[in-house]
Automatic annotation (TrEMBL), chains A, B:
One of the Pfam families matching this protein, by short name: Voltage_CLC
Protein name as catalogued: Chloride channel protein
InterPro entries: CBS_dom (IPR000644), CBS_dom_sf (IPR046342), Cl-channel/antiporter (IPR051280), Cl-channel_core (IPR014743), Cl_channel_pln (IPR002251), ClC (IPR001807)
Cellular component terms (Gene Ontology): chloride channel complex; plant-type vacuole membrane
Membrane topology listed for this record: Multi-pass membrane protein
Major localization listed first in the record, in broad terms: membrane
Classification via PANTHER family: CHLORIDE CHANNEL PROTEIN CLC FAMILY MEMBER, CHLORIDE CHANNEL-LIKE PROTEIN CLC-G-RELATED
Residues passing through the membrane, by range: 73-99, 119-140, 152-169, 212-237, 249-272, 293-317, 337-363, 375-392, 398-417, 429-452, 458-478
Domain of life: Eukaryota
Keywords annotated in UniProt: CBS domain, Chloride, Chloride channel, Ion channel, Ion transport, Membrane, Repeat, Transmembrane, Transmembrane helix, Transport, Voltage-gated channel
A Gene Ontology molecular function term of the record: voltage-gated chloride channel activity
Native organism: Salix purpurea
Amino acid sequence: MSTNFTNGEANRDHESLITPLLSSQRSLVNSTSQVAIVGAHVCPIESLDYEIAENDFFKQDWRSRGKMQIFQYVLMKWLLCFLIGLIVSLIGFFNNLAVENIAGMKFVVTSNMMMLNKFGMAFLVFSVSNLILTLAYLNGVDAPGIFSLRTLVIKIIGSITAVSSSLLVGKAGPMVHTGACVAALLGQGGSKRFKLTWRWLRFFKNDRDRRDLVTCGSAAGMAAAFRAPVGGVLFALEEMASWWRSALLWRSFFTTAVVAIVLRALIDFCLSGKCGLFGKGGLIMFDVYSESVTYHLIDVLPVLTLGAIGGILGSLYNFLLDKVLRIYSRINEKGVALQNFTCLCNFHFHFLSSFWTTMACLIKNTNFEFQYPSILIFFVTCYFLSIISFGIVAPAGLFIPVIVTGASYGRFVGMLVGSHSNLDHGLYAVLGAASFLAGSMRMTVSLCVIILELTNNLLLLPLIMLVLLVSKTVADAFNSNIYDLIMNAKGFPYLETHTEPYMRQLTVGDVVRGPLQVFQGIEKVGNIVHVLSTTSHNGFPVIDEPPLSESPVLYGLILRAHVIELLKKKAFMPTPVPIGTDALNLFSAGDFLKRGSGNGDKIEDLQFTEEEMEMFLDLHPFTNASPYTVVETMSLAKALILFREVGLRHLMVTPKISGRSPVVGILTRHDFMPGHILGLHPMLTRSRWKRLRIRAPRIFKLF
Amino acid sequence: MSTNFTNGEANRDHESLITPLLSSQRSLVNSTSQVAIVGAHVCPIESLDYEIAENDFFKQDWRSRGKMQIFQYVLMKWLLCFLIGLIVSLIGFFNNLAVENIAGMKFVVTSNMMMLNKFGMAFLVFSVSNLILTLAYLNGVDAPGIFSLRTLVIKIIGSITAVSSSLLVGKAGPMVHTGACVAALLGQGGSKRFKLTWRWLRFFKNDRDRRDLVTCGSAAGMAAAFRAPVGGVLFALEEMASWWRSALLWRSFFTTAVVAIVLRALIDFCLSGKCGLFGKGGLIMFDVYSESVTYHLIDVLPVLTLGAIGGILGSLYNFLLDKVLRIYSRINEKGVALQNFTCLCNFHFHFLSSFWTTMACLIKNTNFEFQYPSILIFFVTCYFLSIISFGIVAPAGLFIPVIVTGASYGRFVGMLVGSHSNLDHGLYAVLGAASFLAGSMRMTVSLCVIILELTNNLLLLPLIMLVLLVSKTVADAFNSNIYDLIMNAKGFPYLETHTEPYMRQLTVGDVVRGPLQVFQGIEKVGNIVHVLSTTSHNGFPVIDEPPLSESPVLYGLILRAHVIELLKKKAFMPTPVPIGTDALNLFSAGDFLKRGSGNGDKIEDLQFTEEEMEMFLDLHPFTNASPYTVVETMSLAKALILFREVGLRHLMVTPKISGRSPVVGILTRHDFMPGHILGLHPMLTRSRWKRLRIRAPRIFKLF
């Protein structure tokens, strides 16, 4: 009896833990859909919507997890980061070796060409810079196949051949993309197509984990390219990531630490001369350490000038690069990319035998006497050559060309100042590189640390900071950073952090126009199929109308991918009655996993009989029942902040005055783009726009 | 005629620019209150609510700004950052000089005592660590007077005397607080009380700008304390700031660059021996650079052990410190703080003549032979002495004691390993310091850079990263970082970034209970005064009821501070009719400025006649008409994310089913605290809570 009682007690207690807490007290149950609650492994809500919590991991009932399983999960996470670091640093090592071994060989250009021909499909990917794609992805702009296994292979081979054929292109950009690819591939459990899937990786198949991993991967790529682990983390933080979390700092630090340690171990291994020049120079690429760097207040003036000119040169560089890229993209449309590429290659081939050596010479060799004309010619050639090289259809980085150009300019200034300064020419080259980098890329802390890790001269820090500040300030007065410019030129719907002044003049109600497609809580299959095939929306509001509720109520938001999954399973009912949570039993955790980019099912692939079209589908259990909402009279600026900070994909707009339809519309990323706003409002003419915006919204030019 | 026409046209055009855009087309005007739109200078919405945009600056009509004025504003911003950097680095300089000059003098302890007696009022402030207060402020927990001019003065003098009287306390914490004070004082336009106000600084009198400035100030403080400009920025980013924006990175980088340059200039100035030891050693405090640090894979094992033990020691340190602080706070309540302080001082005075020198010796002197017993005794003494020293009623930092303890422990391990390792004892000391820092503070990137900038040895980077990782991982298994522990012990309502699992089991509707106080759009003065004096809420919903609208509508949110300002002006009306935007003319931009901490008016200070109490006040023009809202069925976890990411103070909860009251409640910071939730629900017992939370919510212990 007492045992029974205890059992009963235990059962009841267990039950009360399973059912939403305190339901006896509440008038309304927690309406968050179970799918949404269970989280990460089931619910690929297409947003960074943070309800998908980190440790939502084991099957449906998250409370069944023991300490051991949590530990296992955490361990897997770390293992993943470790693998990313390991693979990326090995790729970096392989990259280095390969470049060294095939550099200067005549056949490189030809092989490069052949490779490109073979993988012709990848042209679209290549025509956009490596780094930009990763940047766009981390902002929430996904493109099909950017992180596929094929992209990874092409990127590695392409980057090696491009660099070793003495093109004036760098390897940092491709390395960042490579790192991102590795991370994304590991995160989606390998590549299904090539039968390389690991089951234990399925838990990371959701937007948020994938985005976190890609951030770590890009940090690892940067760290491997410059052997700058801390710089890599900061680069990912300052430039790459659009949504930063403190956990991410720790994880990307771990990844780059693995890179640093593996690189150091490889250097140790290579010291015996087994792998060419790899181990030479150790961790520091351009070591300019000197016991006591002596500089005084009098040296500040030339340094300031250097910074200011660097800023001007940098912004001009961005302007020209932007123009050249626009021309290239027009040429590419006409299919003459290959000719353009060959021609450039040959030109380079004869001109610059190895700019890498020159760079090292510029920065490190303090005694070498350069001639004024030769260094000037070198600077001008590098400046323009790197601009025309970047847009070609090959994996190209910007960092190295900018550094070499900046170093030559800095050295030139150093020579001009001559004996009036205490700093030697090598240090001027470093400062010049810093100023040109800041003028073009507009980063601060990450550039500072990368330069530090490249040159190993901490005493120079105050001067480097000064140069970075001056250069960035000057350049910002002219245009925006190079990545923004390319992003605009390519027309990505990149979501900025800041709001434009005109956004405070508009309400969200102004922006969400056009027909709104909604689903009933229990919807006819025919209607669903019709809506899905006639629209391309990725999310739909679910509304309960009488008799399901007293008055129309916004029940939640359902994603296209989930609806398609439901249709595929054909869990239809002949009559419109709620089926409740039983429906969840029809699905396994894997069904709602986020697919690899571009691999989702399409509505066109599904076939339905006439009979099925007349049946019903209960959407309730699969709906995210607590989406973020805003009132239609909220200013667009505020809505953008919410959208941006929380990392949303869909934002429901509710009416100010109740009684009308419970939802007015859905805000998506595109609704915040100036072009969209301009198009919607005939009264908002361009001239008027111009007066309203005050600060020019740069993206505006596109539309 | 034609002139008239043109004028008319121009007028119309001008008008249409002033009136909300496209109003002719819209059914609803942009309901964002003008006060809220005009922004920063008028509207101290007590949140980081980002509608207060950066460049909302000049009087009411923001469109009247010209390019020149924007430029001027930007310039002012930079000037402010420059001033912060300058002042903080000068304070750091002064600090150093003073410590050096009075160190070892007998009268220090006495003078310290006297000073403390005189400023007895500041005890409350002192009894909490310097850094913690700044940390709490940046999370949104404001305490009266933490950044006042008096606090600043006491902090500087106190820190100097504490350090120079050979207490085992550091200066990093006080320097961070000093930096924050300087920034806050500059941001609020100086100190009104001491007649030090600058008019041009009034534009920064709002929560957001002040918070940004304090972040920059803390970065500057850290940079000045360790001469680590990049480390300072990263410290502010990783540990201090709760809300980080990319603009902030750039601005804090600027501030610490000023610190670096000024420090470098001062070193230059001091080289001639004018200021004691200040210039000695240059920018790098513990330079351990060596041409080629040789270490191989075999050295990794002792380093890993070092990291693991460092982690254990660090978490034990945190545990003990937490306990000791709790004991101290009980002692302080009984008023015996002073005795405790004196006794400690004397003890220290005799024991450690100068731990700073010892530290330098431990790290830098590679040849010096320490005895096993002596270094062990030194380690144990430092370990426990720093724990009991920290809680005393004096400005004390944690960094230096932790570094010296860690260095002694590292050196000890290095001596044990002896000739089996390629690394010398000095490097072991550095690694030991790193492991102990990571074990106690749990930072990664910022610690790494700070150690780099302290020791100038980039080649050691992979090992330092490894040690930090291992140590942090081990320590995290035991307890949380020292700042979290102290924060919990002090009971600050600190808002964490992550959500606890139980939060997904609760809806916001569960949490907002208790009587809700609302205002009508046009409210009787008597009611307002009654509500304000009987509640302590800082924000109230404003509701329009018939006849103002067809059905009850949530108009917006009004802040207590604004209502009090309205009452002060006594702009009352005899009848309840809307007065429209004319009301704004009664107020100048300065009226709604955010006051310095704790200086707001109180409702008790206002007097009203019987007649006035019967009059009406139109709240509409002063209401923030588009507050962020959530539906009552949203899970608490999601609401917390919104609250935390957007930086809110008040979050309105609307009903799921329309027709009831348009607002269910307001969520504030306290509603997310476990204690609050626990208290509200009798069914949520502690044992049940324990099972639900899975990951222990650490703050739980408090309640």
